[in-house]
Here is the input.
Amino acid sequence: MVTRKRIKIQEKLVALRWQQLLGKELSTEEGEQLRVIYPGRVNGGSGPDFRDVIIAVNESNLMKGDIEIHIRSSDWYSHGHHGDPEYNSVILHVVMWHDDSATLTQNGKAVPVLCLSPEYRAYSTPYHLPCFQIMKHKDKQTLRKLLAVAGEERFKQKAIHFQAKLRQEEAGEMLFQGMMRALGYSRNIKPFEQLAHRVPLNFMEKMQPKEDLILKQAWLLGTAGLLPSQRSSKGFLKEREVQELERAWRLVGKKAKTMSKNDWHLSHVYPNNSPVRRIIAQGYILQRYYREGLLRGILQLVKGACLVNGYRELENGLVVFGDGYWQDHFDFGLKTGKSALLGHGKASEIVVNIILPFAFSFGEVAGEPEIKEKAIKLYAYYPKLGENEVTHHMARQLCLEDTSDFTACHQQGLIHIFRNYCREGRCSECPLVS
Here is the structure.
């Protein structure tokens, strides 16, 4: 009998072999010739095993996407990937043994199968990209400077995007949409964007009475289609806080164009990242700035923040601890340990990725150079954020043993290098190795 633990160990072996195929000429079971340009990054969540892979098929066709690792090709079906749309992005199925006729995705696409020879030896050393063990070729100070330049480039790319939209859209709505996207993480970005368009900031800030927190939360949750009554979860209607939300929604939401619970990824999501919990947090933030408005309140935060430790003020302007029911619930009827609805970690991500580049762009378009300059300086001083999948992957790829002295700008530089060079197969143009 093969245990799950044994299967996992074997799949890790196949994954290690895959990472050592960089630049090698290979042949799929369908007879196509391929070469690995970039083996991608390990996926720490649900879905395909490696993300952002680049392969050249028959030399002329460059393909970008994900790959899935299995012991046998038939595992694709036994694991249910053929019916899961999350695997439609797979461009190559890498296996040890090929025992099935074809690999088909949920949308009907045929995926080529690469069968690795069982005799191929997996070494402990991973693939060797030009940037492998970069500290043997560059000193720490030089690397920090290069990453700082890349981090500033990423900041300015975001700012250019915001500037283009600011000339066409209302500033407050843009800020609100950006913050909503950030609350969605990767799995719920699109539904959060849709919710921001269905319940725009202008509407939320004009509702009466303005100080009614329950009304704001009811509008957001009801339009999202996530109230218990909309999800056939009537067993939770006895809770007082739930009754208040349902009562408010019945009064105001009759003509609203609501989303469906099926629009959201509710499973395989960490409790603190639950869409319901994040929507409740956004209600608190809107409530916090109901007097001056979200746009003015956030811009005042940036203007008033000190350069050296101003990040604390910026994060405190977003952190939501909540009270009552939502102190220890991540969804209706589902408890979790007591924690902030929106903690310092997530607040710092929103500040660095949304608020500061937005404030920079607003200063440029509105002719307020002081806020533009303040935003870029705050970004340069901002301390290191928590690691994410990309920064962790890049530190591993570069063999960086210690990144404790990095700032948020250096981390953003790693992300910029990954997105603009690594996953585009542009190693020869990468500023880290040129």
